[in-house]
Each structure stands twice: as structure tokens, then as C-alpha cells.
Amino acid sequence: MGLVVLVAACWGVLLTVLPSTSGDPVLVSVSPQDGETVRSPDEVRITFDRPVPAELATIQMTDPAGERIVSTRPYNPPGADDAIAVPMPEARYEGIYTVVWSVPSSTLEPMIGSSTFSVYSAQRFTAVPGLVVDRDPVVVAVYTVAETLATAALVLGVGTMFVLGVAWPEGTRRPGSRRLLKYTWATMVLATLVSLLSFGGYAARTSLGDAFDPALLAGTVESDIGAALMARLLIMLPLTLGFWQLLRSAPARTSVERWMAAATVLGAASALAATWIFARPHAPAGPGPLSLAADTALLLAAAVGVGAAVMRWTVLRRAGKQAAPAAQLLARIMLVGGAAVLLAATTTRGWQLAAYVALAVVIVGTGVTLLYRERRRRSAPEKSDGRRDKPARRRLWEVAAVSASATVVALAALPGSDLVG
Fold first, then answer.
1. For residues 250-282, b (16+ Cβ closer than 10 Å) or e, as one string?
2. Cβ count near 390 (within 10 Å)
3. Which of 86, 103, 169, 372 could be bridged to 251 by S-S, CB 3.0 to 4.6 A?
4. Measured between alpha carbons, how far is residue 347 from residues 39, 154, 209, 336, 394 in Å?
């Protein structure tokens, strides 16, 4: 019953925190209107057909002399969360004013518009200057690295918990397993916090100095992607408590208990993995059910394969012959995990598909190598002097090195890390 409650709690948090996808905003009006001659407006207001987080928008304005005069970030006027505005300067000169604005879309590409109006003058309107929308490379690097680290921590943490639940319940008592989980969980939390803090600057295309403005953080929380990042942190609360209780409880004895524990890990982790899908650029209508299910399955399959490989190379390798049965089961799990990655990857295309195929091949190849090595070890007993088969061990480490390298490359293609743009 407790396992069902854990899964329900994680999915309940996800469904409660995530807002309903409303699509990209559509421009309704600009005040002053494009081409209008006015006396002396107090502000420039741009209205859309739905609420817009003003903190993530950008408005630039030039005066009749061609100088930029906007010194504050846009704001939502009182009682008008579907509009963004900036104040006019106190000193207003006669002539043509130009306004260029942008708001982030669901794909994080800016939706740009422009208008011109005249103050006390009927001068001829000229071309509108372009809006500077290039992202600060430092902000891009901070946000991208944070999301990549969070993705890697998700894959490794969930995979480790799955391995401990199915193949090696006794491993929950080993310090190495606990350290691995502690470090991956801490990395996920810290990386997600950095993503939250830097997303505002990333979406609004500000400099690094302005990226951590509290107003940008407020805009982040109001956005769809920011809500997904918040959901990720909130889901980790029941998930951490449930996984910690799972580690402290008696190890599973029967196959039924082991697979129930594994189903709980994957069921609860699927809610966490879904936040990666919602926290990446998507269509205005949001990710569809099939796309959400396929991408979540892809993350979990990668977690199972990578987690099994890492546990085999690290903790189990130090456990000696006592972990031999678990090592054989892990090798078989790698085969299934690699096949699942390959199957789920059929929904992707281009370089992402190539990366997933490479990851699947590495996972399956590692599992086959380990099974072959274990069969040779059983058929050829150790020499009388107790020395191990050094060539076989060397080959294993070569496979491990290649697998680790391919995993790092493939993680760059996983959902949540394709936000660079």
C-alpha cells in the first residue's frame, strides 16, 4: 500500500503544479497604436490574448534622436496580466518614437513585434531598428550545463535505485551504494536550482549580470518551463522520503517483492522524468500523450541501462564473489535496457537518433561482454597462484571507458538538454 501511495504522491504533485498549456500569446493591440500621433503618453502597453510573464519579455524603445530610452524591465499593469508595459521617460521630445518587443514562445524562440508612434508631430515614419535578441553565451553555458548535470543525475540515480530493488537488494546496506545515491540526488537538486535561477536570463536573453534578478525568477515561476522545474523539486520531496524508506527496509527476498520495488521506483521516477519533457521547448499545445510517454520511457530505459553498468563497474566490482549472481542479472538487465532505449529512440530523428542508437549499442555490448566474461570465468577456474585473468580484466575496463564516454555524449541528446538555441 505504501508503494502505491508513493507513486500517487509523485504524480499528484506533478499534475497539481504543472499549469495547463495555453499556447503562445497572440498580439491584440499596442497603445499608442502603430502610426498614431499622440500628445504625451505615460506608458507604452502591449496587450495579448492571454497572460504573459512580463519579467521574461523585452521591450526596447528609441526617442526621436535614435537613442534607447527604456531603463526598466517590462511589467504587467495592475489588473492586466495579459499586457506588458514600460513607462515613457519624464522628458519627452517631439518626434517619432519606435518600440520593439519580444516575448518567449513555447519553443523559447522570441516572438518579435514593432510599432512606431509620434508625439506632437506628424513627421514621416522611418524604419524600425532591430531588436537585439542574442543570448549571453555565459548564461547559455550556465543553464545548459545545469540541465545536463540534472539529466545525468536523474539517469544515474533512478538506475541505481532500480538495480538495488531488482538485482541486488543486499547492496542497500553498502556504503558505496548510499554514497552514489547521495551524490546523484544532491547534484540533481543543486543543478535544478541553478536551472531555475538562470532560466529567466536565458529566456529573456539578458546578460549574466541581470540574469539573477529577482524579477526574472518571478517570471520563471509563472512560465510553463519554470513550473516544470518547480514540480521537479517538489516531486523530489516524496520521492526522497520513499526511496530512503526503501533503503532502510528489509531487503526484498522473493522475485515478487523485488519486481514490486522496481515497479515502484519506475512508477514514481516516471513523474520526475516527465518534468524533463515539460521543461524543454515544445509545441504550443504542449507535448502530446504519446510523445510524453515515449520520451519518459526513453529516459527510464537509459536510466536502467546506465545505472546497471555503473553499479557493475563500481560497487559490485568491490563486492567480490558474493555479488556474482547479481552481476549476471545486471548483465541481462543491460540487454533489456539497451533494447528498450533502441525501441523508444525510434520516435526521434537526426543526430538524437544516432546518439540513442550509440548508447543502446554500448549498453547491450557491455552486457554481452560481461556475460561472456562471467561464462569464461566459470569454465576456466583461477590459477593456483590466485592471480586473475589480467587480459580479461583489461578488456572489461576498456569497455567501461568506452561506455562512459558514449554515455556522456548520449546524455546531451536526452530530453531537457536540447534547450540550446
1. ebbeeeeebeebbbbbbbbbbbbbbbbbbbbeb
2. 8
3. 169
4. 57, 21, 39, 18, 37
Whether residues 369 and 399 fall in one domain: yes
Span 16-66, pLDDT tens digits: 888 766 678 889 999 998 888 888 788 999 999 888 888 888 888 888 888
**Is there a cis peptide before residue 32, judged by omega within 30 degrees of 0?**
yes
Cell, residue 15: 499534475
What is the extent of the structural domain holding 76?
Answer: 39-119
Sign of CA dihedral 276, 279, 282, 283: positive
One-letter amino acid at 247 equals L
Q: Could you tell me if residue 165 is left (phi over 0), alpha (psi between -120 and 50 degrees) or otherwise beta?
A: alpha
Domain check: are 100 and 221 in the same one? Answer: no
Q: What does residue 89 show for φ and ψ, rounded to 5 degrees?
A: -65, 155
pLDDT digits (tens, 9 = 90+) for 162-192: 888 888 877 777 888 888 888 999 999 999 9
Report whether 269 contacts 11 (CB < 8 A): no
- Residue 315 placed within a domain: yes
Whole-number pLDDT of residue 418? 44
Statement: the pTM of the whole predicted model exceeds 0.70: yes
**Which grid coordinates belong to 88?**
515613457
Residues 109, 148, single domain; the answer is no
The backbone torsions φ and ψ at residue 412, rounded to the nearest 5 degrees and listed phi first, read -65, -20
Residue 314 contacts residue 176 (beta carbons within 8 Å): yes
Backbone angles phi, psi at 102, to 5 degrees: -150, 145
Q: Do 157 and 90 belong together in one domain?
A: no
In a domain, 26, yes or no: no
